[in-house]
Amino acid sequence: MSVTPRPVAPVSSTSTVRVANERALFEVLCRGGHLSAPELVGATGLSKPTVGIALGELEELGLVEQVGRRTGSTGRAPRVYRLSPSAGGALAIDVGRQWVRGARVDLAGQVVRRAQREADGRPASALVEEVLGLADELVADEPGADGGTPAGGHAVSHTVLGSPGVYDAAADVIRLAPNLPGWEERSVLARLRRRLPGTLVVENDINLAALAELDGLRVDGEDTDDFVFVSVGTGLGMGVISHGRLLRGARGAAGEISYLPADPSTPSSPTRLEELTGSASVVSAAREAGLEAISAVDVFDAARRGSSRARVVVAREAERVALALTAVVAVLDPPLVILGGGVGRNGDLLLDPIRAVLRERLPLPPPEIRVSRLGVDAPLQGALADGLVRARQHAFEAATAVA
């Protein structure tokens, strides 16, 4: 169900306190899932009568619903509440050179639909149509159980789009996305903005992967709000989390380590670090070593099977990734580095030699280095997490606008 903002009138102190109480319960339910009134009293510090009144108001606004009673307790079983799934939702779309992946999440945090389509290096005009077609597929309502009223029609207030490159908010264009031909043209975002549901939010895909890592760390109970996520795959990129927030930089380009010069011998066109560490570099080195490799996966698999030539290529890759991390650690001094991407996730072969190189090159002990557990869906998961936060904030503010 969509929530229509009520007309705004002068705010009284009573209404301010009421909304503050409602927000306190709403935020706890955002974190806690299914909770009873006594649990909400303990989590918020509000009195039992205040919690009861606020819950009733949130139910009336359509933001909260009852989902049964808590069993196993003495006395009368307390009612259990959750955010109402139908009060809002968000769309997440991850655009890559080979695939476009998407998902829709409701306000309770449940992913209600997923879909993906092949991109296959298509030009921007065709890629835009794939994105729009995917979005239509994700928001299409399924028929209800009786074949009549649609079920699951969660209003999408935001679409979060993950993309390679840097989003220039002032010009409303994506820059530095050479792997997607034509994707930097102004018309791309203009067309997407006109036709995608809700407010369009554009974010770098590696930044979104970093947000997904942060979400995963918190779910696991790890108190780690400062780390860098470094993706080594087709390209090289980094997302920086500082004090629990994404560090974007003045122009959104923080973490673009692929442009670091790795060979200053030709100042007019120096070799970029991405050219030395990406999957294409791994394949090229393998072929030079006499291996029949089609992809980086082939090289790492050969190394696991004991191929000495493949192991030499992998050792070279580890040294070059360590070169990138040396620069990162020297500038940011993070306590944790998480490696991802098609190349970076080969931790069984890369982590030990990377750590050895860092110990040699850095003046202080290197940070903890681990491999991401999220896989190729990390940017999409980050887009879902970001979209859910935005959708919940929108739904609450729209529903509680003072009458």
Describe the structure.
The protein contains 13 helices and 19 strands. It is of the alpha+beta class and 403 residues long. The strands form six sheets. Strands 6-5-4-9-12 form a five-stranded mixed beta sheet, sandwiched between helices. A hairpin with a 7-residue loop joins strand 16 and strand 17.
Gap between N and C termini: 20 Å
Which residues form runs of ≥5 with pLDDT under 50? 1-11, 142-153
Structural class: alpha+beta
Strand count: 19
Quaternary assembly: single chain
Instruction: Give the overall silhouette.
Output: globular
What would you report as the Rg, rounded to the nearest angstrom? 24 Å
User: Strands of the biggest beta sheet: in what spatial order?
Assistant: 6-5-4-9-12
Name the helicity range.
Answer: 40-55%
Can you count the helices? 13
Ordered list of secondary-structure elements with their pairings:
Blueprint (H helix, E strand, L loop, with lengths): L12 H20 L2 E2 H8 L3 H13 L3 E6 L9 E5 L5 E7 L3 E8 L4 E8 L5 H16 L2 E2 L6 E2 L4 E8 L2 E3 L4 E3 L10 H10 L3 E6 H15 L7 E6 L3 E7 L2 E3 L13 E3 L7 E2 H5 L1 H10 L7 H9 L3 H25 L3 E5 H4 L2 H15 L6 E4 L6 H22 L4
Parallel strand pairs: 4-9, 9-12, 13-18, 18-19
Antiparallel strand pairs: 1-3, 2-3, 4-5, 5-6, 7-8, 10-11, 13-14, 14-15, 16-17
Helix pairs in contact: 1-3, 2-3, 4-5, 6-13, 9-10, 10-12
